[in-house]
Design goal:
By secondary structure, this protein is mostly helical. It is built from 21 helices and no strands.
């Protein structure tokens, strides 16, 4: 309860600055409506209150605190379980203010959308993530703020970016790597070019201070980072040499993906990630008495709506692919960095999960598609710089 109201108040302050109170009220209200619909299903015994990993986090937060991949979320669940009044209830909706904060900064980055509410209107599955005890929204928020603060290029913002990087590392380490890789790829070429063309002492000093701070943090946490790097290296080597077919069986994907032919399997996994689930399969599950959804009917309905919009946007982008390329070229550094980071979800979860990831792991890529759809339509209308 304490964290929920503190974060909600923080989000309210942000929306007040830009006179977006109406968006705050609409998004907050829609989240509560979805929550009440879910509670209705829960009271009728159709779903558990804390679903899947959400229950695991709250039931045994001590385990997750010891796991660096999820320790930040473990601390939040520990606080809610043992220190926060009505923690069991409010851990379910702790992500509502996190969603509000994410949409606020996401809209600031992509202001061509009419309001922060726009993203919820197109992709209402975001509302279900807001009532789930999962790390995803906080990961997105941290990644967004890292890019935002880094691109400000001041000592204070560099420090904030480093602190946020530590937080993201304690949520999902490889997502931190993809954020910095995205920025590095976009920054390296122009920086080298401008460095040799005209040396800017202030800029060089700022970069040096930032790199020094980052290296200091890496030196402090080196044992943990080294262990994690070795773990990723081992898993990647095993996967490439002999573990791909084993993982396909473990993920129960061997009936849809032929993992014996690895290049073909990786290609088909990417296709599967992009085009599944088909809307008709969700409709079938919603109305079939024999197929019970673990997440409830409310989740399935929001998922169906989101996928219909996503399919429409995806097909439209494929038809207008030339305009999409021009649109990307007209975007600014922050926008490109976040879109590149969102794109990274495609290869990561296509290879790791054979494209059969849950909706929440596909939503970042689908957000990428939505942003490109909105901006390309705008670009085709006025053909001017979108930054």
């Amino acid at each position: 309860m304490i964290l929920f109201f503190l974060l909600s108040f923080l989000a309210l302050i942000c929306y007040t600055r830009k006179n977006r109170i109406s968006s705050y009220v609409i998004i907050f209200s829609l989240c509560l409506v979805v929550y009440l619909l879910f509670v209705f299903e829960f009271l009728f015994g159709n779903v558990d209150y804390l679903i899947s990993d959400g229950f695991k986090y709250f039931d045994n937060p001590e385990i997750w605190i010891a796991n660096i991949d999820r320790s930040f979320w473990g601390y939040i669940n520990y606080f809610e379980k043992y220190m926060d009044p009505l923690g069991f209830i409010f851990i379910k909706i702790i992500n509502i203010p996190v969603l509000l904060l994410f949409l606020y900064y996401f809209h600031k980055l992509f202001p061509v959308a009419k309001s922060p509410y726009t993203f919820v209107f197109f992709y209402p599955y975001l509302l279900f993530l807001a009532i789930s005890n999962l790390r995803d929204l906080l990961i997105w928020l941290f990644a967004l703020l890292i890019v935002k603060n880094y691109s400000e290029k001041t000592i204070r913002c560099y420090l904030i970016a480093i602190i946020l990087s530590i937080g993201l590392y304690m949520l999902r380490p490889f997502m931190l790597a993809t954020v910095w890789l995205a920025m590095f790829l976009l920054e390296f070429g122009p920086f080298i070019k401008s460095f040799f063309k005209k040396i800017n002492a202030k800029k060089v000093l700022g970069y040096s201070a930032f790199v020094l701070g980052l290296l200091t943090v890496l030196w402090i946490v080196y044992p943990t980072v080294q262990k994690k790097v070795h773990s990723y290296k081992y898993n990647a080597t095993h996967l490439i040499t002999k573990g791909y077919e084993e993982r396909a069986k473990l993920r129960k994907a061997d009936d849809v993906i032929d993992a014996s032919n690895m290049p073909k399997a990786i290609f088909m996994s990417h296709v599967r990630y992009i085009v599944t689930p088909m809307p008709h399969s969700i409709i079938k599950r919603m109305f079939s008495s024999g197929l019970k959804s673990e997440y409830g009917k409310t989740s399935e309905f929001l998922r169906l709506y989101t996928l219909i919009v996503y399919y429409f946007a995806l097909v439209w982008l494929l038809i207008n692919i030339k305009s999409v390329v021009r649109t990307i070229g007209a975007l600014g550094f922050q926008q490109k960095a976040i879109l590149l980071w969102l794109f990274a979800f495609l290869p990561i979860y296509s290879i790791a999960h054979f494209g059969g990831s849950h909706q929440r792991l596909k939503l970042p890529f689908q957000l990428l598609v939505l942003i490109l759809f909105i901006y390309t339509r705008k670009f085709k209308k006025n053909k001017r710089n979108l930054t």
